[in-house]
Amino acid sequence: MLKSKIHKATVTEANLSYSGSLTVDEDLMDLAGLYPYEKIMISNINNGERFDTYVIPGERGLGHICLNGAAARKGVAGDKIIIFAFAYVQEDGNEQMLKDYKPTIVILSDNNKPV
User: Fold this and answer.
1) What is the pTM of this model?
2) Are 24 and 34 a contacting pair, CB within 8 Å?
């Protein structure tokens, strides 16, 4: 199931020489319920690229969203992306729990502030 989504994050940097991952402002990680090194899927709205990587925390309050390493080939500063995280959810015979399930969705403004 979809656990968390950060919608319309603006890429602030693409750093090819970093070893890999996506740097996300730690305040945004907290809002979305993302954990350091959690696997994520990214969809680039500008160019249609979809890829998997993991999250690393960035400095709080700066709104940084940085594509690192190979991910830096999938977008450039200014691109809009969607960040998805998924989790296994066991119904344990309670189908209503699945029907009532709601992921955490954070929608961002152009300067990566929650709206």
Assistant:
1) 0.94
2) yes
Each residue's pLDDT tens digit, 75-99: 999 999 999 999 998 877 778 888 8
- Which of 107, 104, 19, 30 is closest to 66 using CA atoms? 19
- Written as six digits, the tokens of 33 are 């319920």
- Going by the annotation, the residues of the binding site for substrate are 53, 69-71
Catalytic residues: 21, 54
Residue 87 tokens read as: 């989790």
Residue 19 has pLDDT above 90, yes or no: no
Write out the binding residues.
Answer: 53, 69-71
The pair of structure tokens assigned to 57 is 């925390």
